[in-house]
Amino acid sequence: MRKELEEAYGFIFEKELLDEIVENGIIKTASAGDKIIEIGEYVTGMPLLLKGAIKILREDNDGDELLLYFLERGDTCAMTLSCCLGETKSEIRAVAETDTSFIMIPISKMEEWTAKYKSWRNFVFESYHSRLSEMLDAIDAIAFLNMDERLMRYLRDKAKINRDETIHSTHQQIAYDMHTSRVVISRLLKKLELDKRISLQRNQIKVIDL
Amino acid sequence: MRKELEEAYGFIFEKELLDEIVENGIIKTASAGDKIIEIGEYVTGMPLLLKGAIKILREDNDGDELLLYFLERGDTCAMTLSCCLGETKSEIRAVAETDTSFIMIPISKMEEWTAKYKSWRNFVFESYHSRLSEMLDAIDAIAFLNMDERLMRYLRDKAKINRDETIHSTHQQIAYDMHTSRVVISRLLKKLELDKRISLQRNQIKVIDL
DNA sequence: GCTGCTCTGTAACTCTTGTTACTGCACAGG
DNA sequence: CCTGTGCAGTAACAAGAGTTACAGAGCAGC
Question: Which residues of A touch B83 (CB under 8 A)?
């Protein structure tokens, strides 16, 4: 734990804080596709991502999903964070995008460290800022962009997060994330292929130029 | 300033903090319609709303606007907040919805108080939490709702914020806020009127039952 | 009361996205 | 090699929202 923690957070947290994290944190792992937090669940701690990526989703009353953003190493979930402090239920769903490992920090320590460590405060604020920015990006995308542009954005993000130019998803899975229908995604992907920006095979999409 | 401050924040901040706010804050006012912060501007402080309401807007590259949410007495702008700490430019526009007054807190004090006062920390975190929730609501609206439902939501919010069941806006202004066209809004408003949920006059909309 | 301006109502059309329905292909497992 | 299942391609249509264009209503200033 120590080694991974230092790789991801060593340059932003001071030594004493790292010690406290090692002492109080619980290491957890999740495999790609695992649900990490469900909407309506009480949040028991705050995760510090060490490895892998997590996707954060919103759901409406009919069960329709929408991808908000991805978290990577060095990120934490600000949503969780404010839930912890308010002891409220989660408003989002978190699903492991790849195999992940993270450290869970108990709620009690969070408040303590906020008073005690400047680096922790900065991290927490920085995290809120990043998350708000990402929410704004998500809003921009759904409010101002057409489906084809949103799809390109999605494919770019997905390739980046997975560090793989080949995306291993079905059209249906993409449709869920983007809150649209499979037919629409197939249609647009085919158009992108004709434009020589991607190439399509069963269960995978290869990014050529987006 | 003292009196208004205590009315809005007296029950959440301790006395010493209130003293510091009075000492360091600068009181400002804005008339309905005034721009308070513009996108790309550097943020010089953090506003504590005393009176009135502010609307927070996002803009895309073509200058198209979208209303994100309203702020009221007791609120602060978390966006501003994270901009302050990061010394970055504003990502949003803030416009006075009604005549407003607020206290500007200089950046330097914010960090100091975060270490010093628990009530300030809680306020800041609480504020982030509220703003994130409101962003989620905004996302829900544009992602999951149709125009007619979004319009009803808008009218409800607007009536609530202004404490006035009669909304004094033109269809064009509503269209700007909702990032659509005037014709669409006129069409839907007429439909709502036929359903006896609102009544329409020139420059005003009276909410009957939404 | 006339004039000019802004605001609203409406029709007709286009475009994008969503829906339904069907076809065929790919692959795993017998 | 056959077959079932899931995945992808495509057509045809429906619905919602955006666009253009124009007519007329309301109101302020003269």
Answer: 129
Distance B90 CA to D15 C1' (A): 38
Six token digits for residue A30: 């999740």
Reduced to 3 states (helix: H, G, I; strand: E, B; else coil), residue B107 is: helix
Give CA–CA dist A108/A184, Å, rounded: 47
How many Å from the CA of A73 to C1' of C27?
36
Give percent of chain B above pLDDT 70.
98
Closest-CA residue of chain B to A142: B143
Element (H, E) at A191: helix A182-194
Say yes or no for a CB contact (<8 Å) between A86 and B126: yes
Residue B87 token pair: 């010394």
| Residue of A56, A92, A125 for testing the chain B interface, max B β-carbons within 10 Å | A125
Closest residue in A to B64 (Cα–Cα): A144
> How many angstroms separate the CA atoms of A84 and A106, rounded?
9
Confidence of residue B164 (pLDDT cuts 50, 70, 90): very high
Longest dimension (CA), chain B: 57
On whether the CB atoms of residues A127 and A167 are closer than 8 A, the answer is no
**Confidence category of residue A125, pLDDT binned at 50, 70, 90:** confident
Nearest CB to B132 within list A78, A122, A126: A78
- Three-state SS at A165: coil
Q: In the predicted model, is pLDDT for residue B21 greater than 90? A: yes
Q: Which nucleotide is nearest to A202 (CA to C1')?
A: D7
pTM score, two decimals? 0.91
How are strands ordered across the β-sheet holding A204-207? A166-167, A204-207, A198-201
In A111-146, which positions are buried (b, 16+ CB within 10 angstroms) versus exposed (e)? eebbeebebbbbbbbbbbbbbbbbbbebbbbbbbee
pLDDT tens profile B31-42? 999 999 998 888
